[in-house]
Design brief:
The complex is a heterodimer of chains A (about 210) and B (about 700).
Chain A (H helix, E strand, L loop, with lengths): L1 H15 L6 H12 L14 H6 L4 E6 L6 E9 L2 E5 L5 E5 L2 E6 L5 E5 L3 H7 L2 E10 L5 E20 L2 E14 L2 E10 L4 E9 L3 E6 L2
Chain B lengths: L6 H21 L29 E8 L2 E9 L4 E10 L10 E13 L9 E7 L9 E9 L4 E10 L38 E12 L2 E7 L5 H5 L9 E10 L2 E8 L3 E10 L34 H11 L2 E9 L2 E8 L5 H15 L6 E8 L2 E2 L2 E5 H7 L5 H8 L1 E3 L8 E2 L7 E13 L6 E16 L2 E12 L28 E15 L2 E9 L4 E10 L6 E13 L7 E18 L2 E9 L5 E10 L5 E9 L3 H4 L5 E9 H5 L6 E5 L17 H5 L4 H6 L7
Parallel strand pairs in B: 14-15
Antiparallel strand pairs in B: 1-2, 1-12, 2-3, 3-4, 4-5, 5-6, 6-7, 7-8, 8-9, 9-10, 10-11, 11-12, 13-14, 13-19, 15-16, 15-17, 17-18, 20-21, 21-22, 22-23, 23-24, 24-25, 25-26, 26-27, 27-28, 28-29, 29-30, 30-31, 31-32
Helix pairs in contact in B: 3-4
Chain lengths: ~210, ~700
């Protein structure tokens, strides 16, 4: 309960101080992110590194945080820098350089996103940029919201991913629009690939965890 | 479980996300309005100047003493609400003449918005029971002001019932108010009563004890004269008090002490088309756009033909390829969409399919959605735009800006495609038919098994049939009041009353495009439950036109009541000229003028509020040369039709929808032949506003 209040206070503090220009709230955010030590993720018994290696197409492991559900998605196509993955139930996620830009089949789906500057910020581990995201409204209208975002390098950490130790940099991205917003986490391997992330999808679906070993 | 555990960052994230989603959740608990025992926005009996959320549909069941009411209130626009009510009184009147059922209609319009920072209250003008027998008739002008976050006060002046207690001389000088006449057929607009007779003041307050629990009190200007006179109601004090509990955003329960002597209870169920249970729907993901540079069909040995692979890929999306034409760098594809409610979604999926299947040299796609085998529109999209815009923000608007929308091209040039789907399609499902308010019974239900079949002879020619077998319910008791008109509709409940296998419909249907912007239909056979014959129709409707014009001529023969193959003696030529107009903002009007089934001449006026997600709420009335006395109860034909798209309910793509007729009393005057698949219904989804309004789904 105490944690929740802290977070709420933090969220308010972030909002109250405007779009990421003040150092103080970002320092608080940074501290919180830094505590975000990843517990060693035990892979599901039936999904191992062999599962990924045996697959003729690339796979990602997806776990919507609210639902306790974990499933694999198969690569189905590439358009420019965007890779689309899909599962047997008809859900799909589209990742642009590892960044979630669209989903389908989840219900409250992310219809599309513009993330200029995000790629550079991921590579540099720092930077401020804007994000535009579109959702489908209740009357089949498109609602687009624009966020002001900032990328932070949190720490270098080695994560266990399906039996392999991978050296990564953990990056945090805080995006705000007025008093609302979201915070994404990326674990970037030495080669620049996002091998693990927790990214915000939509108000109803919340966050999804994505692993791409 | 194997989530990557990122505890605190996640928690931080969750906290922030509450900021985004939380506002939405709070809004649904807001303190917009409560509902009265009449099912209208207000206090207990008295109105307030508050309005529900736009589009809200509130169903209220309420009761006290000898009265029970079922009411439907619709917030038609932000300011206008309308209500329809069905009331039951046991033994009304001094003579205790027996059970009485009564229908009534109300309207309320918010004239002035409340100034939350200043002193100006919200003000509204209302008419109660303005179209019925007049039992509840009253008019009012009411003002409501929130004094604090938790206290809201209301005051107003009422006429009619609402001016019956402690009244004073009519301030407008309209002293004479015609009395309510029991036994009247009702159904006329009570113009001579409006704001006539004595007026009186009423007042009330609402206090929010905790966010979902509200204490309500009012000083009532309704003297309950008729009820007091017949001894069914004791009116000790002019005050009502009660508690209102909004225990879910969609449910409200109230309990009241009425005039110091009676207990009133009510429950309201609130539905809003804007609250989609499955958000945008759980439609399976569409295939991703494939860049032309990644398409290698041209070089593949033994690859299936263009038609074959497009047909197969479209079939995977629930679309049926009907024709294809490659000319230069343009690929034109005609397909039947029987899967997606929003035509734009079918267009988007077809376009995605083409990016993966069209040869690399193709630069432009022309997509022609068709229904019943006839093309409805031609949407031209550039392949490069699809590649560039996929998965970007505002991609739907951007694609729309680059699309060209016009009429479909000619059939000439298209390579016809052998139908991949089986020619015969059939289905077996339970059915339930509820007839509301047949004048004697508030609701009557029967149900059983329904078999439907469709045999396609050509893309635009098919045989369609529906058979039913009833397992429960009895229609034979439906009360039918006498009439001087031929029984063209009032005995509809007796059709199939004997049970057995019932042929509901068996028709041969032919559709065609006789020219640009023109559509035609011929239906032959057992057209509906009561009539067989032939129905012919033409429609003029350009793709981007707000106006459409149609003409229909039918020869109808009345069927036998056993719903077999036989016919009765009555036959008639009926027909209408129709004009359809799209006013924008979701409002659509329709006028049908012509000859009705009883041989009466007249016109039907229809106004519909269509929500972009497929919900439609329409009202209609028909005036013909049949007099009110000949028509009988209700004086003329009228009704309210609520149409709910099935995809809204189940979250999966489907074109099916349910129409509920809430307020019709089936009589013989102004009765129209029912024909499935009238042209306007077939064409409208792919045209003009409907196509634009659903465009948000183009990338879905």
């Amino acid at each position: 309960m105490a944690l929740r209040w802290t977070i709420l206070g933090l969220a308010l503090a972030l909002g109250a101080c405007g779009p990421l220009n003040s150092d103080a709230p970002m320092a608080v955010a940074r501290d919180s992110f830094l505590q975000a030590r990843q517990a060693a993720a035990a892979p599901p018994p039936d999904i191992t590194r062999a599962t990924f290696e045996a697959s003729p197409v690339p796979l990602i492991l997806v776990a919507p945080v609210q639902s306790e559900e974990v499933f694999l998605m198969e690569w189905v196509g590439r358009n420019g820098a965007t890779e689309t993955y899909r599962d047997a139930a008809g859900r799909s996620l589209s990742l642009r350089d590892g960044v979630l830009v669209a989903s389908r089949g989840f219900g409250d789906d992310l219809m599309g996103a513009d993330t200029p500057g995000l790629r550079g910020a991921l590579a540099r581990g720092t930077g401020q940029f804007g994000r535009a995201q579109s959702w489908l409204g209740p009357l089949d209208e498109i609602r687009t919201e624009r966020f002001s975002c900032e990328m932070l390098t949190l720490e270098s950490t080695t994560i266990a991913l399906f039996g392999q130790q991978i050296a990564t940099r953990q990056l945090g991205e805080v995006c705000l629009r007025g008093e609302a917003g979201f915070a994404n986490n990326y674990w970037v391997a030495t080669g620049g690939d996002v091998v693990q992330s927790r990214q915000w999808l939509s108000p109803a679906i919340g966050y999804v965890d994505i692993q791409a070993p | 479980m194997t989530h990557p555990r990122i505890a605190i960052a996640a928690a931080l994230a969750a906290g922030l996300a509450t900021g985004v989603g939380g506002q939405e959740a709070e809004r649904s608990f807001d303190w917009r309005t409560g509902y009265t025992l009449y099912g209208t926005p207000g206090l207990i009996d008295m109105p307030t100047a508050t309005s529900a959320r736009e589009g809200e549909i509130a169903t209220t069941l309420s009761g006290f003493a000898i009265q029970q009411r079922l009411s439907f209130s619709f917030q038609v626009t932000d300011r206008l609400s309308g209500s329809f009510r069905y009331a039951y009184f046991d033994e009304l009147g001094p003579a205790r003449t027996g059970d009485t059922y009564d229908r009534s209609f109300d309207l309320q319009y918010r004239l002035v918005d409340e100034d939350p920072d200043g002193w100006r209250p919200a003000m509204a003008l209302g008419l109660r029971d303005f179209l019925g027998t007049g039992r509840y008739s009253g008019e009012y002008l009411v003002a409501t002001k929130a004094v604090s976050d938790r206290l809201r006060v209301t005051g107003g002046i009422g006429w009619g019932r609402l001016g019956s207690y402690n009244g004073f001389d009519n301030p407008l000088g309209r002293d004479d108010r015609p009395a309510f006449t029991p036994g009247d057929t009702g159904g006329k607009v009570n113009l001579d009563q409006f704001f006539a007779g004595p007026a009186a003041f009423f007042a009330g307050a609402e206090y929010q004890i905790i966010p979902r629990l509200t204490l309500v009190g009012e000083y009532s200007s309704d003297a309950y004269e008729a009820e007091a006179e017949n001894g069914s109601f004791d009116r000790d004090v002019p005050v009502n008090v009660g508690l209102r509990w909004r225990y879910r955003p969609w449910a409200e329960l109230s309990a009241h002490v009425l005039h110091g002597s009676e207990i009133g209870l009510s429950g309201t169920f609130i539905l809003n088309p804007q609250d989609r249970p499955f958000a945008g729907g759980l439609d399976p993901a569409p295939p991703p756009v494939v860049p032309a540079s990644a398409v290698h069909w041209d070089n593949l040995q033994g690859a299936p033909s263009l038609e074959a692979r497009v047909a197969a890929a479209l079939a995977g999306e629930g679309l049926v390829l009907q024709g294809i034409e490659q000319r230069g760098t343009t690929l034109r594809v005609r397909f039947d969409n029987s899967t997606y409610r929003a035509e734009a979604q079918a267009i988007g999926r077809a376009a995605r399919v083409l990016t993966a299947t069209a040869p690399a040299g193709i630069e432009t796609f022309v997509l022609e959605p068709a229904r019943q085998g006839i093309p409805l529109a031609g949407v031209t999209l550039r392949r490069a735009d699809l590649e560039r815009l996929e998965n970007t923000a505002d991609a739907a608007d951007a694609l729309y800006a680059r699309a060209t929308i016009g009429d479909a091209g000619p059939r000439a040039g298209l390579t016809p495609v052998a139908a991949p789907a089986p020619a015969l399609q059939w289905g077996l499902a339970p059915y339930m038919e509820i007839s509301l308010f047949d004048g004697d019974n508030p609701a009557r239900a029967d149900g059983g098994i329904e078999a439907t079949g469709r045999y396609r002879l050509a893309p635009n020619v098919s045989v369609n049939g529906t058979l039913r077998y009833r397992l429960f319910g009895d229609r034979s008791e439906a009360a039918i009041s006498p009439s001087t008109l031929p029984p063209v509709r009032r005995e509809v409940n007796l059709y199939g009353a004997d049970g057995g296998v019932m042929l509901e419909r068996l028709t041969l249907d032919w559709y065609a495009r006789p020219g640009q912007d023109l559509y035609a239909r011929v239906s032959l056979g057992y057209l509906e439950r009561m009539y067989g014959g032939v129905s012919t129709e033409v429609l003029w409707q350009p793709v981007d036109s707000r106006l459409a014009l149609g003409a229909e001529v039918n020869y109808a023969v009345q069927r036998d009541r056993d719903l077999g193959l036989d016919f009765d003696d009555y036959d008639i030529v009926t027909g209408h000229l129709s004009a359809y107009y799209d006013f924008g903002n979701g409002f659509q009007g329709q006028v049908d003028a012509g000859r009705y089934l009883a041989g009466d001449w007249g016109a039907t006026f229809r106004l519909e509020r269509a929500f972009d997600n497929g919900w439609r709420l329409g009202g209609y009335f028909t005036l013909t040369d049949v007099s009110a006395d000949d028509f009988g109860e209700g004086s003329f034909d009228k009704g309210i039709v609520l149409t709910i798209p099935t995809d809204w309910v189940i979250g999966r793509p489907t074109r099916s929808e349910r129409a509920v007729n809430l307020a019709s009393l089936t009589r013989d005057g102004g009765a129209r032949l029912e024909v499935d698949g009238r042209l306007y219904d077939v064409v409208r989804d792919a045209h003009g506003e409907a196509l634009t309004d659903g465009w948000g789904r183009v990338w879905r």
